[in-house]
Amino acid sequence: MKPFKIRNIEINPPLILSPMAGVTDYTFRRLIKRRGGVGLVVSEFISVEGLTRHNPKSKRQMFFDEEERPFAIQIFGGQAPRMAMGAEMAEEVGADILDVNCGCPAPKVVKNGGGSGLLKDMPRLEEILKEIKKAITIPLTLKLRTGYSDSTINVVDVAKMAEQCGVEHIQVHGRTREQGYKGLANWDLIKQVKEAVNIPVSGNGDITSIEYGLQCWRESGTDGILIGRGAMQNPWIFRQIQDALEGREPYQPDLTEKKAVLLEFFEMLRAEMPEIVALGKMKQLAGQFTKGLIGGAQFRQTLYHSHSAVEILDNITIYFENLAAGNGFGDGIIEAEALLTDSCDAYAAI
Ligand SMILES: Cc1cc2nc3c(=O)[nH]c(=O)nc-3n(C[C@H](O)[C@H](O)[C@H](O)COP(=O)(O)O)c2cc1C
After folding, report:
1. 234, 38 in Cβ contact below 8 A?
2. What is the full DSSP assignment across 144-184?
3. Is 101 in the pocket of ligand 1 (CB under 6 A)?
4. Which CATH class is domain 4-252?
5. What is the pLDDT tens value at each position of the chain, 350 positions in all?
6. Residue 42 alpha carbon to ligand 1 centre in Å
7. Is 173 in the pocket of ligand 1 (CB under 6 A)?
8. Whose CA is nearest to atom 15 of ligand 1?
9. Could you give the residue numbers annotated as active site?
């Protein structure tokens, strides 16, 4: 468990903030990166149909800051010429890595041949990878699910083919498309991919604690791990895993710091987007952040019904004052079940 390289780019520590549409935007990525322990951040998935038709939203999604480097842009689509053009645009804006989405389960994406639809059309995926390789000089990476369905698990074959096409890092979310977010990620399949190729492989799925993260990592033998939903519940999870890896006591933020991080996020959101969008994003993070914490359910109710920045700030202050007054933050253990069901559904239904 040491830093690894994607060509000459060092991923150090080997911990990656997994891409999440509607979540891992410019603001959220910086918030998480500043907590420490993150070796690579990835954009939300960006439509090449949008990019190549100069859709302002798609172009905005490519925006990033120097403090985020190394930074990967993830694109999705099903047509090789458009994927190559989109990849070229990502290189032009300065991304360090170009990542292709082969995992999105949303019907709209799959219907057009993209996302996890590429898992059941290997010739199409191969063509896309070859066209992209011709168009860019930065490393090309791939994020895969394990297969389209339980009866067509093919992640090992896809990874081998991708390696032949010049892909330089494979990331595997250990679920099939059919599975959506149900059940547990299959880390055994992730291990099989690691053993089958010579390029770096990172594993992904269900890591919401230091212990489980280290266990999956150790057992699968992967080079790195990606964490998505766990980062919303605990923005310090990367730093804590890094601490454990380097033999230190994992960092434990106190109440003041937890409150400060919510306020920092809110301030960034308000500076970077319209108020109405900022309010929605704030509710999303605060909702996840307080899951499994004492008084969290009630806090979320008040937050969801807040209609202005002032109201949100007041509610945050009251919540943390109550906690400081003796209700405590529990033992800090975050319930594994309290995953982001609602956000998952939103991504799966795009
Ligand atoms: C709200 C949401 C949005 C997501 N968007 C993307 C995406 O844009 N690209 C992608 O490759 N995976 C996306 N995913 C999948 C995650 O990157 C990750 O593979 C999955 O959530 C499993 O990891 P976790 O258990 O650590 O969250 C998304 C997941 C969620 C919950």
Report:
1. no
2. EEEESSGGGB-HHHHHHHHHHTT--EEEEEEEETTTTT-S-
3. yes
4. alpha beta
5. 799 999 999 999 999 999 999 999 999 999 999 999 999 999 999 999 999 999 999 999 999 999 999 999 999 999 999 999 999 999 999 999 999 999 999 999 999 999 999 999 999 999 999 999 999 999 999 999 999 999 999 999 999 999 999 999 999 999 999 999 999 999 999 999 999 999 999 999 999 999 999 999 999 999 999 999 999 999 999 999 999 999 999 999 988 999 999 999 999 999 999 999 999 999 989 888 887 778 888 888 898 899 998 999 899 989 988 888 875 444 333 332 333 455 666 677 76
6. 11
7. yes
8. 20
9. 104
> What is the DSSP-derived secondary structure letter of residue 23?
T
d(CA 326, CA 320) in angstroms, rounded, equals 10
> What letter represents residue 62's amino acid?
M
Asked whether 320 and 255 are in contact (CB, 8 A), the reply is yes
Is 261 a pocket residue for ligand 1 (Cβ < 6 Å)?
no
Instruction: Check: pTM over 0.85? Answer yes or no.
Output: yes
